[in-house]
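cron nightly-structures :: item 1 of 1
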Amino acid sequence: MRIQTGTSRYRQASIMWAFSLLEVMIAIAIFFTSVFVILELTSQHLRTARILQTLDVDRTSLPSLLSITNYLEMGPLPIDIKIQYEDAHPGVTVNGFIEEVATNGLFRIDYSIHWMSENSMRQSRNSILLWRPNMAGARGPLSR
């Protein structure tokens, strides 16, 4: 028969509840793997957010500038509208052409906007139709 003292029971109990070196190594490996996965996921989402955050040129303000004019002349875009748009958007150039498509005052405006974005020249082309009934027939019959 073995007689156990209180101190030996305490040692035996502490040994039973301790983690082995292998268990600690596995836990540390799992911890650092999960930390690196979370950091990689966070950096990937920040990179995606930065890509989505790149600001392009407001392409709707040029048609709005053209729509508030009550007089359209066939030919290139009016210089005052080009200057006003380019002053509001530094680093942007605008080209366009206005033509009458019907004798009732319907005009088509083809325009393109050019700007630098991320070391490359970008371009946006569009066409709009504007109806100016006060200018119907002001140019005479259309030559076709």
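cron nightly-structures :: done
The helical segments are 6-17, 21-53, 61-67, 79-88.
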